């Protein structure tokens, strides 16, 4: 165990430094706790909501910055899977004491970004993050996995059916636990399970137009979540 500080980029950090830093993260900081450590220390007021997720959450701030008005924090990390998010959930969500958390995760679990996994492992990680939030008085929004017919970084994979399956479970789990389900899939998906034309440049990550479609879904879900009591244990036993 070490309290060694996180690496800090110099003012002249170049692509070579960034590549080396990514290598350091892969070998020394699997959940990437360092990614938001400094930003978390600078949070002085209770956030309204923290967005936990992968690149789809991370890029939301980049491509739709107006959505992240005061009180909304983005803690997405590109490429991450649910086990990585679960490890950093205490530091990047619970410790900040937000009123609500928005969890959107599963694309990279399906892709196998951190190795072999299973549907049940993904479910358990979602359950664990939701339980941690509720136990700490944080309202929970579960965002559906956005549609995709293929992944450029996983040639040959056809994820559309799996995405629909996992979203079906998310919707049921949210209803069971009295959490809020944000159905981005319904707003973004074409009939074949791909992203609707014009909403993404790669079929996976929403572009500015895609996030514009997601915004009202998120706003409605957050408004609903902040009305739901969060104290106490889950209302029903796990399946």
Automatic annotation (TrEMBL):
Q: Which domain of life is it from?
A: Bacteria
Q: Where is the SGNH hydrolase-type esterase domain?
A: 52-213
* GO terms of molecular function: phosphatidylcholine lysophospholipase activity
**Entry protein name:** GDSL family lipase
């Amino acid at each position: 165990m070490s309290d060694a500080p996180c690496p800090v980029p110099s003012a002249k950090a170049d692509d070579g430094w960034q590549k080396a830093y990514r290598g350091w993260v892969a070998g020394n900081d699997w959940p990437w706790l360092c990614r938001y450590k400094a930003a978390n220390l600078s949070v002085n007021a209770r956030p309204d909501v923290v967005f936990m997720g992968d690149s789809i959450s991370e890029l939301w701030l980049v491509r739709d910055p107006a959505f992240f008005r005061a009180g909304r924090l983005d803690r997405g990390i590109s490429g991450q899977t649910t086990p990585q998010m679960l490890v950093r959930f205490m530091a990047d969500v619970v410790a900040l004491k937000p009123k609500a958390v928005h969890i959107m995760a599963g694309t990279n679990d399906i892709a196998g970004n951190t190795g072999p996994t299973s549907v049940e492992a993904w479910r358990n990680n979602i359950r664990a993050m939701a339980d941690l939030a509720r136990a700490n008085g944080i309202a929970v929004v579960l965002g559906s996995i956005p549609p995709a017919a293929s992944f450029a970084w996983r040639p040959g994979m056809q994820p559309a059916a799996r995405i629909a399956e996992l979203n079906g479970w998310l919707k049921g789990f949210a209803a069971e636990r009295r959490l809020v389900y944000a159905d981005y899939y319904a707003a973004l998906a074409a009939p074949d399970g791909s992203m609707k034309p014009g909403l993404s440049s790669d079929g996976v990550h929403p572009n500015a137009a895609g996030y514009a479609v997601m915004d009202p879904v998120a706003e409605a879900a957050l408004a609903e979540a902040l009305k739901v009591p969060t104290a106490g244990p889950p209302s029903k036993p796990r399946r």
